[in-house]
Input
Amino acid sequence: MLISLVDMEPGETGIVMKIDGGFGATRRIQSMGVRIGKRVKKVGARFWRGPQTVLVDNFKVAIGFGMAAKIFVEVERSEDK
Output
């Protein structure tokens, strides 16, 4: 299932499949280590459209809500939960 980073639940992992932004936004996201094909784990999120914290290559990275909404991740999610 392909979802944005903001829709992931804390503790979920997935692989970055698409970055839906312009050249500047994509370059900035990639400079944080979040690239297509990388495995990310969502550590947490702040209340009400705050930064999203993810674990990439054993580094915690805080990404703003707007940029996180442009990152799409393939996650394995069971709909039976």
Residues 23-31 form the longest helix (9 residues).
